[in-house]
Automatic annotation (TrEMBL):
Pfam families: Hydrolase. It comes from the Bacteria. This is HAD hydrolase-like protein. The lineage of its organism: Bacteria, Bacillati, Cyanobacteriota, Cyanophyceae, Oscillatoriophycideae.
Length: 261
């Protein structure tokens, strides 16, 4: 590969490849109802739109029903944007819950939904324009492509297969690997057969990219923040002011790699 293209392309899934906001809300609401058993099991009219706006605060799946709990409890949107980590932990503490048990309930509900209504579940996901074509073109080239995500790998495989993209299991690093993304990137570099390695990583969470930045041995990894993903304007501004992180648009992503930088 030239300096204008990677030898390894690592992509986040949610917020980079796929927009699953509608499904997130639906499965989060179902989980919320199972955990907290509200008297009214129909969400209020504005709940989904507030959830969508606040999606950037979510790091892993268990937080989604907790976010709904916070919204139903009347916690202000701006407060959630500023103090989400402490709010989420406070809710767990007050209700004597463990993140792991909420995550298990959410994953089980998802699995059950997939088994009983796969078409319905798939229909709630939207792939960003041009992304599937870019993935297929990359797979047809000599570039190694990997998905590095906090979503369960089996869900990623289901969604990609629907789009005609078949990735081997070992190319998808999902929540089940239980390792930070920077550690996975390190392993991809170490395992690469083609040297020198040029790894490009596209993510929609600036905190994740900042963690990669802190790893001195990953200083040559090119970092991209997807401006179409689940991030806020202040986060996009921070990327623009960071010499290591490149803000990339969806139209750039769909183009040749030379247009990315």
């Amino acid at each position: 590969m030239t300096n204008n293209s990677p030898t390894i392309l690592a992509l986040d899934f949610d917020g980079v490849i796929c927009d699953g906001l509608i499904e997130y809300f639906q499965v989060a609401w179902r989980t919320y109802c199972q955990v907290w058993s509200p008297a009214n099991q129909t969400p209020s009219d504005d709940l989904a739109s507030r959830f969508y706006r606040l999606r950037p605060v979510i790091e892993t799946g268990w937080e989604m029903p907790v976010l709904i709990k916070a919204l139903v409890a009347g916690i202000d949107d701006e407060k959630i944007l500023q103090e989400w980590a402490s709010i989420a932990q406070q809710i767990l503490l007050e209700d004597k819950l463990q993140a792991k048990e909420i995550a298990t309930k959410l994953d089980n509900l998802r699995d059950e939904w997939i088994v009983t209504d796969l078409d319905g579940w798939l229909s709630l996901h939207r792939f960003y324009p041009g992304v599937v074509e870019k993935i297929k073109a990359t797979l047809a080239s000599k570039i190694k492509l990997y998905i590095v995500t906090t979503k369960e790998g089996r869900f990623v495989q289901q969604l990609l297969q629907q789009q005609g993209v078949t990735l081997p299991k070992e190319a998808i690093f999902g929540k089940e690997v239980k390792r930070p993304k920077y550690e996975i990137l390190r392993e991809l570099i170490q395992a690469a057969q083609e040297k020198p390695v040029s790894l490009w990583f596209v993510e929609d969470r600036i905190k994740t990219l900042q963690l990669v930045k802190q790893q001195t041995d990953l200083e040559n990894v090119k970092l991209f923040l997807a401006d179409w993903g689940y991030n806020t304007q202040p986060e996009r501004n921070a990327a623009e002011n960071d010499s290591r992180i490149q803000l990339i648009s969806l139209s750039q992503f769909a183009e040749d790699f030379s247009a990315w930088c």
